[in-house]
Amino acid sequence: MLGRVNHIAIAVPDLEQATTTYRDVLGARVSQAQALPEHGVTVVFVELDNTKVELLEPLGAESPIAAFLEKNPSGGMHHICYEVEDIVDARDRLKASGLRVLGDGNPKIGAHGKPVLFLHPKDLNGTLVELEQV
Hints:
Layout: E1 5-11, H1 15-25, E2 29-30, E3 34-36, E4 41-47, E5 52-58, H2 64-71, E6 76-84, H3 87-96, E7 108-109, E8 115-119, E9 128-133
Parallel strand pairs: 1-5, 6-9
Antiparallel strand pairs: 1-6, 2-4, 3-4, 4-5, 7-8, 8-9
């Protein structure tokens, strides 16, 4: 069911500083910042040959990233995103297996303009998992 790793997300307290480090110090290609109000974040993608790194900054006090950064003020790995061919089929199969889908269980449109959903970290060894339909 799982395809390749689409991206690894890192929550950061200062998106501009993190972007500068990845671009100017590490020499990576980075996207423009993109605000995603429906997800409560602003994101930048670091483009690598084999995957992407998503840098996440809270967009407002109600952002789930704000709560994450309260516990981890320096930032840290937030989630890993895997590609799936059919997100509704994947959701249904995972729910039938006892995994919990966060939110209302329906896919939302993510930063790449494709349907995404998140799986509860307690069901996956403490790791928040995002699925993205390709």
